[in-house]
Amino acid sequence: MERREFLGKSGCGLLGLAAGGAILEAAQTQVPAQPQTPPPAPAVKRARYKIDIEIFEARTDTWCHKKGDKFSYPLDWGKICPWFRASLSELVRMLEMGVTLPWLYENTPYQKVIDPNGITTEFVRCPDPTANLVAKITRTKIG
Fold it and tell me: Do 78 and 23 sit in the same domain of this protein?
């Protein structure tokens, strides 16, 4: 028996339509559901850090920054040369978020400090090959 014959002879087609209509009517007369609000996310207490940038190495005749210049992030961010700032940007953001990078600058004059409960340092070189400019970034945990 084909489908059309079955629906026509048994009356199932009409019964199905009637039942579907009754279900649809019942669904429309129910009280609308209240919007569900998700439970609040648990509060994650993120550590806070103070970020300081010091010019660790620079040519004496450089036009922008001198050895010993100090900057506080983000307060003095605009005082740093834009090209150098671009080199510093990602590393400063990672340090600010609590990331500690594993490398140690072995066989270099740069002494890295890694202390998860206090101070961590990183070094970044300016992309200008003539500047010989290196900054020491110091992250200090607050509180």
Answer: no
CA 113/CA 92 separation, integer angstroms: 15
Q: Is residue 122 part of a domain?
A: yes
- 68 with 137, same domain? yes
**Strands laid side by side in the 134-142 sheet:** 70-73, 48-57, 134-142, 119-125
Give the whole-angstrom CA distance, residue 85 versus residue 109.
22
Q: Are residues 16 and 66 in the same domain?
A: no
Torsion of CA 77, 83, 84, 88, to 10 degrees: 70
Tokens of 3: 């489908």
Q: Does the pLDDT at position 3 exceed 70?
A: no
**pTM of the predicted model over 0.70:** no
Number of domains the chain is built from: 2
pLDDT of residue 110: 92
Same domain, 56 and 96: yes
What are phi and psi for residue 72, nearest 5 degrees? -105, 130
| 8 Å CB contact between 138 and 119 | yes
Q: 3 in helix, strand or coil?
A: helix
